[in-house]
Amino acid sequence: MKVKPIEKYKTPTYPNKNEALKNPDLLKTLPERWKGKAKACTAVALSSLLFMILTSCNTDENAGSTGSDTGTAAPLFIHGDGRGSFGCESVAPPAFLSEEEAFSVIAEEAQREGIILKGEAPVLYNVTLPETNLYYSDKEKNTKAQKGDLTLDGYDEAKQIAFEFVSKDDIQAWAGQSAFMSSVETFRFLEAAEVLAEGISGKTGPMTVATFYDPHYKFDSEEIQDIINSNTEDFNIMEEKMKELVKADLREQVRDFLSWLKGQGIL
Amino acid sequence: MHFTLHLTNNCNMACDYCYVDRNCGQSMTSETARQAVDLAAGMTRQGDSAGIIFFGGEPLLQKELIYETIEYAKYKEKGAGCYFHYKVTTNGLLIDDEFMNYSLKNNLFIALSHDGVQKAHDQHRKDTGGKGTFGTLIKKAKMLLAARPYAPVLMTVNPDTVRYYAESVKYLYNLGFRYIICSLNYAAAWDDGHIAQLAGQYHLLAGFYYRLTMAEEKFYLSPFEVKISSHINRQNYCRERCELGKKQLSVAPDGLLYPCVQFVGDEDYSIGSVKTGIEEEKRENLYRQNETEKDTCIDCAIRTRCNHYCGCLNKQATGSIDRVSPVLCAHERTILPIADKLAGRLYKKRNAMFIQKHYNEFYPIVSMVEDLTRG
Known about the structure:
The complex is a heterodimer. By secondary structure, chain A is of the alpha/beta class. Chain A has helices at about 15-20, 40-55, 100-110, 170-175, 190-200, 220-230, 235-265; strands spanning about 70-75, 85, 125-130, 145-150, 155, 160-165, 185-190, 210-215. In chain A, helix 3 (about 100-110) packs across helix 7 and helix 6 (about 220-230) packs antiparallel against helix 7. Chain B is globular. In chain B, helix 1 packs parallel to helix 2 (about 65-80), helix 6 (about 165-175) runs parallel beside helix 7 (about 190-215) and helix 8 packs across helix 12 (about 325-350). At the A-B interface, helix 1 and helix 2 of A face helix 8, helix 12, helix 13 and helix 14 of B.
């Protein structure tokens, strides 16, 4: 046998202590056997508090965003239906924005105000995420909540500003179990963004975090019908026009966010 | 700081993997033990605590010396203003009611060496007549656990017993042990086939760990705990690495000082004596020699989470603190991904016991409070 160095090793999927500290609620997760035991619970509460105080002095060059805990989650800025579907309901090609397309739009708008967004962004641990349902429902609200980690989509480390864009990929990744399936997948971006914006509230550490969503329009909306009726022969043109429409809406979401930042004195 | 007093090289057993030189048959005198306590008191700052560990051979062959030494240490505490805590590592055969009562009254913590199921234990842990000690040990282990439910058990895994690894851990758990510390006999003749068996056993143990944690059972199972901690506490983990002679000293029966138990008897590694104190230059040189990254490991992606820096293990396995054992390397490469996958699964489940155990620095206190309020 010989000593064999390992060339690459995958980063574990559980956080180290410095990363975990960014989520002060983590230690509130108590074993069932501790619950209902007054002394033990008091000790837990005290220890958790002490833990936070003691370790808040810890400096770690790899910890990313640290410092004063003065960040916030921005409210949702609504432009676009935030609804879409894929399957037999769609006779027009759906024009979902990819994560890359959305990043490009958001970064471009943000740069006008001196915010330089990078794709490498922090993780928010143990926050409330949407639990989506991909299959058709006539319920007014079809999105529930679940606990999980959120890797943000963009980050300006110097200004401590970050964002998450709720994309089709996200809706699929957050999908819960469904009692039934169908040939149509529905995407409730706005609903999911609402759950997410609320779910990360108070858990963003020192960062100000915006939640944007794919503005995609419902098939029977006036906007979509106008495009379909004017381009019945060419699906490529239809898709292009729909993308322009949703990108414009996304720009509006970002502009509203930038105005809000100024109003808050953050910019 | 811990001071390990090797009370005797004699033993009432004849385990074939033991690294103690039984032929020299030397035992520590009361005077040497007292000088060791004096040294410990002198090196411990006022208000601080230090550990006095009784080791062997089999330390319970020297029960009277243990009693005398603890009595003297208590006397020294008053003058020096420091505190001592006590531990003995034993093969268990000489545990009896009188000793258990003494240990409870004097806060002498007891760790038991036990290799698990009979077919593993009796393979190597034999009495001087060559008979396995498993049968005798059952009663002793139960006696120990009845008085000290938190007693740790130390299990050694050999190539010819690796196939019983998981079964042995489960046996010890079912016997009542909740602190199970396992390590390989790195000096043995391991081959790739044994390492493949080891991987299979770690997968079984990961499943065992997962089920217990999901059921919110409290336990400590090393090496899983250590490997998970090496990621979670990565900064402190690096700081807590082997510091030859700086965090612990071994005192040989003749009073010579060594940086760890594996070095005792090899006078090239002696770093002083209880009479003359520590030779700082020798200790510092050894420490620096050990701190230097090994050429074989410098480019390894897991070197910060690996035990290759443990000079004591290297000495035991290869005869040199600078030469990393290929067995140790194979072990670390085997267990790390299994431990990380296990921890990842438990974290993903947001398992509360896992989170408290690994992220709450006050978990031991909270856990103790919970035990006290259990009823």
